[in-house]
Design goal:
Layout (H helix, E strand, L loop, with lengths): L4 E2 L9 H13 L3 E2 L1 H11 L3 H7 L1 H5 L12 E7 L5 E7 L14 H11 L4 E7 L5 H7 L9 E3 L3 E4 H4 L23 E3 L7 H8 L11 E6 L4 E5 L12 H11 L9 E9 L6 H8 L8 E6 L1 E3 L5
Parallel strand pairs: 5-6, 11-12
Antiparallel strand pairs: 1-7, 2-4, 3-4, 3-5, 6-7, 8-13, 9-10, 9-11
The protein binds zinc ion.
Length: about 300
């Protein structure tokens, strides 16, 4: 029998007004509640981090875009940055109308992607507003901290091994690395013209142990800067998060919409000779009307010179 621990439901929740105020703070930080705010909330309400984390779940769900299911899921990663500071990284599901259901972004993927792209080095806990589906359990099994982090549901707490026993994971494909514990980067892109450095470094930071297709997407907006997405693969392949899904999720966590009024341009960069993201990206974008055309760039990789 799994040793699941049933906890008593916490009576604490934020009022509608407090939720709205926190929503605006998180939106301003593009889907992150910084450590100083987390500490201030714990102190203000005299509650431990877990209680504040769970109380934030309805706010995370406010970022969901679920035109098909109308089922709004919130997830939050409690993670540590390189300095050991503890931030909340929010996530929510994103659905695409008129497209295959398999293209949706799940809330847990969104939160983990948000933490990964924004400097989290260690995942301590993941809180979710509803039980994680099998796909998300598999996605979480790709994480470096898969055996240690706590999964907090509104009234229960688990370890991943309890929810996903006898798991198939990276090691089964001979991959010794994992998401948040990447292989040393031995490549660079062979760039001949001036190029967006951040898009290049995003693509090189992609977690692509199975395809080798280093790829990233940049969504430029008219007034709110650029949003980047990175390709994150999974040993079971299907739960992999495409760079476009990753970038769209980041844009929604800033409270923005994929509309022609917001989006100025969309660029996909991937490894020449390994391209497999173009059609998937086009399929997702076909869900929207009147967006600028996807710019697709393929560059060859070169081995970095060895430093002696
Ligand atoms: Zn899921």
């Amino acid at each position: 029998m799994p040793t699941t621990s049933l906890q008593t439901a916490t009576a604490f929740s934020f009022s509608a007004g407090q939720q709205q105020q926190l929503y605006l703070t998180i939106k301003r930080h593009a889907g992150i509640l910084p450590s100083t705010d987390v500490a201030a909330l714990c102190q203000q309400y005299n509650q431990p981090v877990d209680v504040i984390l769970r109380a934030c779940l309805p706010i995370a769900a406010q970022f969901a875009v679920a035109p098909i299911s109308q089922f709004f899921v919130g997830a939050i990663v409690c993670g540590l940055d390189a300095q050991g500071e503890q931030h909340f990284y929010f996530g929510a599901n994103v659905e695409f109308t008129q497209q295959a259901l398999s293209l949706v972004v799940h809330a847990e993927q969104s939160a983990i992607n948000n933490a990964w792209l924004n400097g989290a080095k260690k995942i301590v806990k993941i809180a979710i507003s509803d039980a994680p589906c099998g796909y998300c359990r598999q996605f979480m099994n790709e994480l470096a901290d898969a055996q240690s982090f706590d999964i907090l549901l509104p009234k229960q707490q688990f370890k991943l091994a309890e929810l996903l026993p006898y798991a198939f994971g990276p090691q089964d494909l001979g991959n010794a690395y994992s998401l948040f514990n990447p292989a040393p980067q031995l490549h660079g892109f062979a760039v001949t013209t001036e190029f967006d450095e951040q898009l290049l470094s995003c693509a090189l930071a992609a977690y692509v142990p199975y395809s080798g297709n280093y790829s990233a997407v940049k969504i430029s907006t008219f007034e709110n800067g650029d949003f980047y997405g990175c390709y994150a693969e999974n040993a079971a392949y299907s739960p992999s998060l495409s760079p476009l899904q990753s970038a769209v999720s980041q844009l929604h966590l800033a409270g923005l919409t994929m509309s022609k009024e917001v989006v100025k341009g969309i660029e996909l960069l991937q490894t020449q000779g390994k391209e497999n993201q173009l059609t998937a990206s086009q399929a997702v974008l076909a869900s929207y009307n009147d967006l600028p055309a996807l710019q697709s760039i393929s560059l060859p990789l070169k081995i970095k010179p060895t430093v002696i």
